[in-house]
Write a structure and sequence with these properties.
CATH topology of chain A: Lipocalin
Number of helices of chain A: 2
Structural class of chain B: alpha+beta
Low-confidence stretches of chain A: 1-20
Distance between the termini of chain B: 41 Å
Strand order of the largest sheet of chain A: 1-2-3-4-5-6-7-8-9
Shape of chain A: globular
CATH topology of chain B: Lipocalin
Radius of gyration of chain B: 19 Å
Helix content of chain B: 10-25%
Oligomer: heterodimer
CATH class of chain A: Mainly Beta
Mean pLDDT of chain A: 92
Number of domains of chain B: 1
CATH class of chain B: Mainly Beta
Helix content of chain A: 10-25%
Shape of chain B: globular
CATH architecture of chain A: Beta Barrel
CATH architecture of chain B: Beta Barrel
Low-confidence stretches of chain B: 1-25, 261-273
Chain lengths: 227, 273
């Protein structure tokens, strides 16, 4: 089954060899998530391997949410949702691609994110909601490394917590027809998880769509996107 | 090494933002009060000197007149956006009275709520008057202005006209074309929830803003001639000039206006207060 999946993936997303020197693929455009991701699961379909402390916080979030209390979630107060959650919401984003920077501009509250190409991750960076991202081309895949996270955000739309030690790796690959984007992500956070784990998401490109001016502070609290 | 660069950039941002030296950007000293009346209740907030040129050793500006990519930072910053520093926009009498009211409220220490203090986009032309850097990302179909301040975002389309029906928004619908080496940006479709400037000059939904941008000084400066029209609040259109410095040494930072509304997390869980 795994082998068949690998074969399918190779067919869908194309072999990457032999083109290392060619111009990188063009990820520019407006993207929508194909299948909404509520609670992140590992690629094997399991619950993320939370430590006992991590599980305690997660269960507190789940219990609060079950009572309709989302005060733990900064998104309800218009704060940036953090990563990878921002990539898992029902909100489109666009990619602007430059030789030295890849820009993700999200419709959600107009949040911008920059990934600087061919730079090392800083060893000591002040925490930010969206962290600090560096990127590189690995063949035709775009690999983004992010650290420097504020620990108040969630990893997914279901309240999965993380610590400031979070290290997120995202690997984006474009389908051969350029209309689909596959994200394979890896989460390392020894304070929250017993081991590194991987998950995935898929996006579809929409041509001729302009993102709108979405302003959280102008949106009534009950209508603010939360997932 | 990298983190030092990042920190230096942040330090530069903070130092430059903190240059609160009152200075008229050009010409005669700016009036210190509305109408130059000397009335302290109508005192204007003094302008800022704004950004200096990039430090020695920074990469030189790109001389290509049609390539605006990069980080730009305003030099000279005014709280009142009229035709000259310290001079009000040519508001109709009833809107001058509203401006007086807002300036007096500010000077009493009880300013009226405005867009920027509510984490709303700042409106036009106000958003272009910012003591924070603006990153321009230019692609074939448009220019994207990524403002550091409160992550304001403008999309300026090169490949289309205004829609016949524009849904009003805080920063409006912007389209542009080149006239020689000048980029002419036309903005309509603005809602009336913002002010023309920080002091509180009013505009309506019929406001129309034209910006003319041109690179000068071999690409190290971006010049802007701003023209504001509003048949509802203004007696007549007016213009003013600004310049932005090329700042390749600056990386825009995450600016979260909404953070002040945040409840502090306790043991990883944010508790409502």
């Amino acid at each position: 089954m795994r082998a068949l999946q690998a074969l399918l993936c190779a067919a869908l997303f194309g072999a990457v060899s032999a083109q290392a020197e060619a111009a990188p693929p063009d990820f520019s455009g407006v993207w929508f998530i194909s299948t909404h991701v509520g609670a992140l699961k590992t690629v094997e379909g399991h619950a993320p391997p939370l430590t006992p402390e991590g599980l305690k916080v997660y269960e507190a979030h789940r219990a609060a949410a079950a009572k309709g209390d989302y005060s733990f979630d900064g998104v309800t107060q218009c704060l940036p949702p953090g990563l990878p959650r921002l990539m898992l919401m029902h909100e489109p984003f666009e990619i602007l691609q430059k030789p030295k920077v890849i820009y993700f501009v999200h419709q959600l509250n107009r949040l911008p994110r920059r990934a600087y190409l061919d730079e090392a991750l800083p060893t000591d960076v002040d925490p930010h909601y969206l962290g600090y991202s560096v990127a590189k081309w690995d063949g035709e895949a775009l690999v983004i490394d992010t650290t420097g996270f504020d620990d108040s955000t969630m990893l997914d739309n279901a309240g999965l917590p993380h610590s400031e030690s979070l290290h997120l790796t995202e690997r984006y690959q474009l389908s051969q027809d350029g209309k689909h984007l596959h994200l394979a992500l890896t989460i390392e956070d020894p304070k929250t998880f017993t081991q590194a784990w991987s998950a995935q998401a898929d996006y579809v490109k929409r041509s001729g769509v302009e993102l709108t001016e979405e302003v959280c502070a102008a949106t009534p609290a009950a209508k603010r996107p939360r997932s | 090494m990298q983190s030092k660069t990042v920190r230096n950039t942040i330090a530069v941002s903070l130092v430059s933002s903190a240059l609160l030296c009152a200075a008229a950007a050009w010409g005669a000293p700016a009036p210190k009060t509305l109408y130059d009346s000397g009335d302290p209740t109508l005192a204007l907030t003094p302008g800022l000197r704004g950004a200096e040129k990039a430090p020695p050793g920074a990469p030189p500006g790109n001389p290509d007149p049609h390539d605006f990519n990069g980080v730009w930072w305003m030099s000279g910053y005014q709280y009142l956006l009229g035709p000259e520093p310290g001079v009000a926009p040519p508001l109709k009498p009833e809107y001058m009275r509203i401006l007086e009211r807002r300036i007096r409220a500010k000077n009493r220490g009880t300013p009226e709520a405005d867009a920027s203090t509510q984490c709303l986009p700042h409106g036009m032309p106000r958003i272009m008057e910012s003591p924070y850097p603006i990153e321009i990302v230019q692609t074939p179909e448009r220019l994207t202005f990524l403002h550091e301040v409160a992550h304001n975002l403008r999309r300026i389309w090169l490949n289309r006209d205004h829609p016949k029906r524009v849904t009003p928004s805080f920063l409006g619908d912007s389209v542009a074309h080149w006239e020689g080496d000048t980029l002419v940006v036309d903005t309509v479709g603005l809602n009336d929830r913002t002010f023309i400037d920080d002091e509180g000059s009013s505009h309506s939904t019929q406001e129309h803003v034209v910006e003319r941008y041109r690179k000068i000084d071999n690409g190290s400066t971006l010049e802007l001639i701003m023209t504001v029209e509003d048949p509802v609040t203004l007696e007549h259109p007016y213009s003013y000039r600004r310049v932005f410095r090329w700042r390749p040494d600056v990386r825009p930072q995450e600016y979260v206006c909404e953070e002040n509304n945040r409840n502090a997390p306790v043991n990883g869980i944010t508790v409502a207060k």
